[in-house]
Structure formats: C-alpha cells, structure tokens
Amino acid sequence: MTRKDKRTLCLLGLLSIVSVFLFTTHVFGNRVDWYSQHVVIGDALRHAIRSEGTLFPTYIKELMGGGNIYHFSYYGYLRPDILIGALLIHIDMQTIIIAYSVLMMTLSVLCCYIFLRQHTKDENICIFVSLLVLLSSIFFHSHKQIMFVNYMPFLFLALISIEKKNFLAFTLCGSLIVLHSYFYCIGCFIVCFIYFLYRHPGEWKKLFVSYILIVLLTAILTIPTLLVILGNGKSGAPTQLASLFIPSLNLKGLLYSEYGCGLTYISYILLVLALSDKQLQKLSAVCLVSFYSPFVWFIMNGFLYARSKIMLVFIPLVAYIMCMMFVKIKEGNIKLSKYSLVLLIIPVFFIKYPLLAFIDCLFVILLLLQKRKNLIYAYLVIPLLVVSCTNCPSSFYQPKKYEKNVSQLVRRNKIVTAADLTTRQNVNQTYGNRIKRVSGYTSTNNKYYNTFLFDTLRIPIPTNNRVAQNDTDNIFYLRTLGIDTVISKRQAPYGYSLKDQAKKIKLYQSNTALPQAYATSSLMSEKQFKQLSYPYTLDTLMNCAIVNKGNSHYKSQFVEENPGFKKSYHIKNKQKIELTLKRQTNNEIVVLECDIVNNRPEKGVSITVNGMKNKLASITNPYYHPHTHFTFVTTTNQLKVSLSKGNYLIKNIKMHTLPASALNQKVDALKIKKTFHVLEGNIHVSKDGYFITRIPYEKGYRLYVDNKEVNIEKVNQAFIGCPISEGSHQVKITFSPPGYTLACITSGAGVILLIIFYVYGRSYLNG
Known about the structure:
Shape: globular
Strand order of the largest sheet: 19-7-22-26-25
Strand content: 15-25%
Structural class: alpha+beta
Number of helices: 25
C-alpha cells in the first residue's frame, strides 16, 4: 500500500466520522430497534457475563421471568462491544455501542477501498465507490438494526483474504462475521462462495476446510442458538409460496430502500452494463437474479420469510462490479445491447418514486457520457439526498425526560419484579440489572410462555405482533407473574398503592402478588382446566396450581352480565368515546371481550379501553398475526374508548365480572437466597402439594429438593415445578442450555485445529 493510499484511507475515515455529525440530529441511534433491543439487551448481556463470572454465560434472570440466554444470543452476545461493555461496566452501554457502530461503519468504508484497490490502480474510482457504500443502508442500520451491518468490515476482509488466497485469515474473518450477526452469516458465506467461484474456481477444497473451521470455532454460539430456534420457532406472517416466484420489479433489495442495499440507480445501470462484459457477465447475472427473486431472499433468510433486507450482504459484490465497470467505461471497453436498454428502464415503472428514479437515471447517463474524470463526484449529491431522507431527524433516538425519572424511582426503591407501563419500547430495560422483568422482546421467545400470556391470560397485543411480550396493567398478569411493582403515568392498578413519585411518573407497589416461587396444595388437573373457557380460567389460575394430576373442586366466580351496549358497532372513522356499563361495579374486576371483523385487511385496527390497547396488524405486515379477539380488563364502569380509523365491525361483545375477594390465594412462599444458581432458597410446606415457580418451562433445568434431584414438570401450562411434601425443604434450580456441552467441546476442537493449521498447515491454507 502506497503512502498516497494511506492518506486516502485517513480521508475516507474522516469523512465517515463527519457523516455521523452531519446527519445525526440527536443521538446516533434509533428508539424503536436500536435502543429497545440492542442497547438494553446489550446491557443485560454484559451484566450476565459479570454475574456468572464467565465470557460464556448461559442464563439471564432479569428478562421474561428468567431463561436460556441463547434466546437473546442472535443479537451477538459474544460481540467485542458486549465484552468491552462487561469490562467497562461503569460506562453507559449506549456510549459503547455508538462508538463501536461508528468504528464498524468506518472500517467498512476503509476495507471497501482496500478491496477495490486490489483490482484497479484508479484511486478516484475506488474513492467514489467507497463513498457510495458509506451512503448506502450501512449508514442507516449503523444506528437502527446494527446486526444488519456490523459484520460488513469482516465481509470485505473475507473477500480480501479470498483474493490473496489467505484462507487462515478468511477463517478468522468468517468467525467474526458469525459472532457479529447470527442471521446474516449464511448470506455472507454465500456471497464469499460466489466471489470465490468467480476468482479461484479450482481451489474449492481450501474454502471448504475454512468453512469447517468456522463452524467448529463458532459452535459455542451457533449450536445452542440453533436449538433454541428449532425448539421455539419465529413469529411472522406465513409465506405465500406462489409469491416467491414473482419477480420484484421495484428492486427494493438494491435501490433506495433502507431495508435493502439502499444504493442509487447508478448501481443498477452498471450491473446491467456488466451483462455485456465477458469477464463480469456471470457475476452480474447472479447479482441481478438475486435482487429480482424473492425465492433467493427466502433461501438466504433461512426459509423464514422472503424479505429483501438480507440483500445487504451483496453490497461488496455490487461495489466490485461498479468499480470494474467504471474502469472499463473509462477505457472505452463497453458494449450495450438492445436488451440491456429495456432492462435499464424496467424498475423506473415500479419504484415507489418513479420521477425521482427517472431523474437519477438521466443524471447517471449524462455522467457516464462525459469525459472529465473528476466530475464523477458530482453524482454524490443523489445518494446524499437519499441518506438525508431516510435518516430524517425523527428517526434518531432522543432521550425522554421521563426516562430519568423512571431510573430515579428504580434506584430509590426496593424492587423485585417491575412492570414498566411508561412506554412499550422498554420491554427489555432492566436499568443496569436492578430489577427483574417478566416482559421482553426476542424473535426466539419461549413458546410455552408466549402461549400462556396470549392464549391463556389473553393479555392485550398492542403492537403488530405477538413476539413483543409487553407489560400490561391486567390484574391477572400482574398477580400471577409475581409483579410487586408497577411504574406508570396512569392511576394505580387494582390492589397497588402509590409508593413513590418523580414528577408525572408514579411507582406503585403491592404485597398481594404471588411469590416468585411457592408451594400449594390446591391443585387442578390439566384435563379439568382445559374444560374451562375464558375468562373462567383466570381466577382458577389465581386459586389453583394446574398440574398433571389434581383434584381441586374450585368453581370460577366469574359471572356473565349484560354490559348494556349494542350487539355490534361498524367503525369507519377515528374517534374517542366514553361508555358506561349498565350497572355500577363495586370492588369488582370487569373483563370485556369482542370480536373484530376487518373489512379492510390491508389496514390495521386498534382499540384502546382505559389505556389498555389491542391491535390487529395489517395483513401486509411481515409480523402479521390474526389477533381478532380483543380482551380488556378494568375495575371501573366508566370506559374511555379510542377507536382507530378503518372499516371494521366490533361484534360478540361480552362482559364478565369477578369479586376482588376471589383473588386472595394463600400459599407457602420460598425464602430466596442470593446465589449464582437460577433459584435457591428454603421453604416450609404446610401440606403435601406442588412447588410452583414463574420460570418458563424449557429443557435444560435441573431441580433439587434437599440436594436430591427430582423430575421437573410443566405446571400452570408454562412453568417449571415439581411435587413437594409437607415440611421444611431446601430447593435449588440450575440450568445448562441444550447443546451447550457439545458446543464447548466443538469450539475447543476448532481452536485446537486452528492452532495445528497455523503451526503446521499455513502453507496449505495460504498457498
């Protein structure tokens, strides 16, 4: 590398950092995904490392009632920034992630330049294409969904390693890709394979050995995570197989869209022109087919869904083709067929903003026809405008004043488990692991727990999917899951009283919620429970433990009543109304139900009653779920109802009431000890029965009573428990993720093989 190249790299690095200050209006991050997922989950993961005292923690107590840490591992819990965060525990995780994201974005641009310089001596072309890469979706997702792009510098380095036939370096780069982005690594390796076949088709054995080493080295992450995914699945709208074979003529995987490469029309024109070049036509054809074909997206997304965001991994290949085509155009070695002309204008008719695309297309053509080489930089105005639009001020994270108030309340009060109702974005927030949450968001959540929340308790679904397990002031949710503290801007939930307040944020507490673990002799069998319909299941859960064999004769105290409403309502306009129940409720819990018939399924429906929101997503939403039965729980006969705009029918309205006295269940609570185990403590059982926890059931747990292992059963439809006899007992629960031992052995073997290859086989892998 020449001294001039080093100066250029410094310039590109500086421009990358300047772009952050140029486009960022608040914090270089996004509230919806960046903060609520990457920042707060990263914070929880680094605290898990600290609490277990290992770089490879297995359990996270603070989210979703506790569970396998590999439910969150696809966010990259072995990423360097997470490990650095565990070391620098007193530095805010937000600061660490911002610094690391800017570093990864900058390195992506620098590595792109180095990669392109391997193929041409024209520095200007390499700089121009590298700047196009900077102004692609890489910038957007560096402050949005960082796992979509944080692997990019290592992908460029992997391609550089292939070019130099340094497969040892490729192995290390490939391993870093996996650790940074579990879901995008397969797409990255497909891109590497395509480039390898293009450059070195005769040396596939070395690439195969490298892939095997990568699989072995990263097994500590991939095997347990894969078992979690296979055991629980992912939520989303079902893929229509026929749609996979309909070409995406708008090229959203390549042009303009931030959920694609986010490049401008110049990239498409050069890809089409490359079809006429003997050297590049096969590579270009593969890229174009991939961008046009939802079936390819479906394969690269692991057969989960056909979404164009996976095409981000093609940015290095597109950058390479663009660079080489600029060189050939400059040398005059370019031919244009009549078929290419037709192909060039197809997307203009299908892109969301065809006029802008047409202007962009004309700009590119004029640029390519001129002979002054430095005029090429004038085109950067177009991607700059695109980045300005996709990174508007509202897309950046702006800290809210109330968040400081919530943090103050958490620090000032003794809290075991909290429900935060101030915002739906903080479902993973543990405030530095000061509190435990039963809420959480991860695409690979526990299927039993998810079913319990949304099908048994039927808590409201306020978002587009049922993956996000949001807190709610549903009294059955609060008491069943042992939530002792509620933080809210609204009035106190039933049974909770004001304990503290910071401006408009209130902290309520109650001592009537069920303990985190307890023993009870009031048992109902699964068979009996399944014969009950909603809402008669709710107070039954509050008064009985649901086990394999039980004989409780508890009879639900819910009573169905006439709410005094019409049988159905046809809603077209957005409106807010106030309704009054037919009779005055007195110290009673009211459950309201209704069915939704959406006459415009392409538009979502939302209904809010006394602050409790239910939403039916648009059928076009990728996370669509047919949530058409809405439920609301309240304790007042005055209803404040907000109805969204649309064309839908509200029908089958039902009302049930329950006396509050029905919730007073007496149990024997576990006295919990502070320990590194999942749960440990002493309990005095007054009568033979069952030991019940709120820990969601899954494989990997071991339960000991008086130091003797007992068989774990699934109780209350979703949690772990076991029979327990009268008397005093010591209880301990441990956890080891399924596949974890195999993963450790496999990764250990990978490290040993890598050392052997480094010492004895470098000539083979690097030759």
